[in-house]
Design a protein that fits this description.
Pfam families: STAS. This is Anti-sigma factor antagonist. Belongs to the anti-sigma-factor antagonist family. InterPro entries: Anti-sigma_ant, STAS_dom, STAS_dom_sf. This protein is α/β, with parallel strands linked by helices. The protein has a single domain, classed as Transcription Regulator spoIIAA. Helices cover about 35% and strands about 30% of the residues. The protein contains 4 helices and 5 strands. Strands 1-2-3-4-5 form a 5-stranded mixed beta sheet, with helices on both faces. The termini are far apart.
Amino acid sequence: MNTLFGPERDRRFSVSLTQHDGVLVVQVAGELDPRTSPVLRERLRPVWGQADLRAVVLDTAGLEFCDSVGLSEIITTLKRCEAAGMRFLLSGVHGVLARVLTLTGLRRAFEIHDSAAEAIRAAAGA
C-alpha cells in the first residue's frame, strides 16, 4: 500500500502536551504538512482559552519534515500566542525546519532554544 497519501501516513505525526507551571510544552514528532497540520491546530484549540498559561513551547526535536503548510501552521501558532498575550518559543529546531527558517529569514521571528528544558527555563524566568 502507498503510505505517502494513505491512512497510514497520519500515524507518522504525533502531538503531546504537557504543562509546567504556566508553560505548555507541545512536542511534535513526524511530518508536519497539509495532512497533519490540522491535527496540531485541533490539539492546540483548547489552549487559547487558558488564562493560566504564560508561554507555549513548540518542541520540534522529533520533527522529521516540515513543508510550507506546516511552517504556516507554526506561524499561525505564534500569532495566536501573541494575540492571547503568551510567549511562543521553539525548541529542538533542526533539519528541514532549521533550513527553511534560515532561508526565509523567519528564524529572527521566533525565540529559539536548543532544548525544551532550556525553553521552559527561559519562559519561567520571564
